[in-house]
Write a structure and sequence with these properties.
The protein is built from four helices and three strands; from the N terminus they run βααββαα. With 124 residues, it is mostly helical. It has a single domain, classed as Multidrug-efflux Transporter Regulator, Chain: A, Domain 2, CATH 1.10.1660. A three-stranded antiparallel sheet has the order 1-3-2. Strand 2 and strand 3 form a beta hairpin. Helix 1 crosses helix 2 and helix 3 crosses helix 4. It is elongated and about 70 Å long. The mean pLDDT is 89.
Length: 124
């Protein structure tokens, strides 16, 4: 059965994904038009997968590449589709890297297991 995507993420969950404070997420919401989280009756922000992807774009521009807020807004306005495509590629590569690391760990564990089995004296 395929893993289903969650529909909404809380601001705390989103902040944890990016290792930033919830106040920074709220600040970016005010600064960037592409962020439009839903709000429930209590006023809690509910972020969709699309919001999270847009936060990836903002995070990458501001925190990784060092853009100013104005520079990031201009970059998003000038080439949102290109930035979106690049973030998708980065996420895919990150997922592949994680999968390869897990596979490497599993293969290393199996190799150790095989060596240990070969060193055991056989009982007859």
């Amino acid at each position: 059965m395929a893993k289903s995507e969650r529909v909404y993420y809380s601001i705390g969950e989103v902040a944890e994904m990016f290792k930033v404070s919830t106040s920074l997420i709220r600040f970016w919401e005010k600064e960037f038009d592409v962020l439009k989280p839903h709000k429930n009756k209590k006023g809690n922000r509910l972020f969709t997968a699309r919001d999270v992807k847009n936060l990836h774009i903002i995070y990458n521009l501001v925190k990784v590449k060092g853009y100013t807020l104005q520079g990031a807004r201009e970059a998003i306005k000038a080439d949102f589709e290109g930035l979106d495509r690049n973030i998708t590629l980065l996420q895919t590569l990150g997922n592949m890297h994680k999968m390869l690391q897990e596979l490497d760990s599993e293969l290393a564990a199996r190799a150790v297991e095989t060596v240990v089995q070969k060193k055991r004296p056989s009982s007859k």
